[in-house]
Write a structure and sequence with these properties.
The chain has 416 residues and is mainly alpha-helical. It has 17 helices and no strands.
Length: 416
């Protein structure tokens, strides 16, 4: 949505500020480059559909308001705004809770929980498919609340949740009783047994207290999925659970169990309650994870990190340019640039994962990038940097061509 587009520079600035404050406080990095790149990449992918269609939440709300509203509350009344504030937050609680308790919705929402770190970039790690279902939960508000008021509050609700994705803010005292805070949301992102299916609130934590889903932060939280993805391939992060769900669906015996796979909780198995048995969740602690090296953070050379970082900045700039100019670009240009962005994010993920075929894909991607640069589809950050960027892209292509030839010659020697 428009507000999110305007907020992007502030998001990135706050992410960088958090990294600086974290480094000054701890004397070390509070992130890994591979995780940070994957989180921001997921945020970019989640917004790509906006290049082609309006957001489902707002467009469906407007349609429902135009055709089925019962009463039209005055947009300039304080009571309307307060009702919208509580209404949006209440609906979000149930959107969020159902996204954890219905397997088909968890397939989308698990993207947001897939990071094993917890910082502001984690807030940007969003699913491309979640909005396909979330819009339904807000429709009752369209019976009375004007779309303009709803749009402001749904944006505020999401923007508020950005800042609570941090470990730097510990306890907010009496505010912890009412508001969703970093402490409460850390619990929500935990895979410790006491954290599972807790603290769904958006701005307010009162709904969790009312409906029995609240948990206080006690033991240090271990972040991520119960069964980690262990990959930085952005398409795998976004869609791997759908493949898993499909397999479970076809293996289930009978229509009852097949539907249970789709509409029960992620931990459900035949013979267990609808949400499964949380006692079966593996017990993890910060100490045990550290000793076992369980965090997926593969070692890779510093020059390769710099390479990925620079190319990621280039694709982030291209993404921002396309998003800003989507109304004036022709559709084929938008489709071409969307394909390039997805291709780049996938290829960079392959490099981070150190896939055996990454050199082939990256060679092709660098060739595509050079063509786009020559044809003027990508804009330089500044005119003075244009020459340096072109040289860097040329050297990138040359390096991967050499890698490709080396691998090809090595394969032929093995055959001989």
């Amino acid at each position: 949505m428009f507000v999110h587009e305007q907020a992007t520079p502030f998001f990135i600035s706050l992410v960088l500020l958090e990294l600086l404050v974290g480094w000054l406080r701890t004397g070390g990095l509070i992130f890994s480059l591979n995780d940070e790149v994957t989180s921001v990449s997921a945020g970019m992918v989640s917004r790509l559909p906006q290049l082609f269609v309006r957001g489902l939440e707002l467009s469906s709300y407007v349609y429902f308001w135009d055709n089925y509203r019962i009463v039209e509350l005055p947009w300039d009344s304080a009571w309307t705004w307060w009702l919208a504030f509580f209404g949006v937050d209440f609906c979000y609680y149930w959107v969020h809770r159902c996204a954890h308790e219905l397997n088909i919705l968890w397939a989308a929402h698990q993207v947001h929980h897939s990071s094993e770190y917890y910082n502001l970039s984690t807030a940007l790690r969003q699913s491309v498919t979640q909005q396909c279902a979330s819009w339904v939960f807000y429709l009752p508000m369209a019976l009375a609340i004007p779309p303009s008021v709803f749009a402001v509050h749904v944006q505020f609700n999401l923007l508020y949740q950005f800042w609570i994705h941090t470990e730097l803010v510990r306890d907010l005292g009496i505010l912890e009783l009412v508001l969703n805070t970093p402490s409460h949301h850390r619990v929500h992102h935990g895979r410790n047994p006491y954290c599972i299916d807790k603290n769904y609130g958006g701005v307010l934590i009162i709904w969790d207290r009312i409906f029995g889903t609240f948990a206080q932060e006690n033991d240090p939280v271990v972040y991520g999925l119960v069964h980690p993805v262990r990959s930085f391939d952005i398409l795998l992060v976004q869609f791997h659970y759908y493949r898993y769900l499909w397999r479970r669906f076809w293996r289930a015996q009978g229509i009852k169990y097949k539907l249970s796979v789709i509409f029960n909780g992620p931990s459900w198995k035949p013979g267990l309650p609808r949400l499964g048995n949380h006692l079966e969740v593996p017990k993890v602690t910060v100490a045990s994870v550290g000793k076992k090296g369980a965090l997926y953070n593969p070692e890779w050379p510093l020059p390769l990190k710099l390479y990925v970082f620079i190319h990621f900045l280039l694709v982030l700039k291209a993404f921002d340019d396309v998003l800003a100019a989507k109304m004036i670009l022709n559709q084929w240009t938008v489709i071409l640039m969307t394909g390039y962005i997805l291709f780049t994010l996938t290829s960079l993920g392959y490099i981070i994962d150190q896939r055996s075929n990454s050199y082939q894909i990256e060679t092709l991607r660098c060739a595509v990038l050079m063509i786009l640069q020559m044809q003027g589809f990508t804009k330089p950050v500044a005119a003075t940097l244009n020459v340096f960027i072109e040289v860097f892209i040329s050297l990138s292509l040359l390096y991967w061509v050499m890698q490709f030839i080396t691998q090809l010659m090595g394969g032929k020697r093995k055959q001989n």
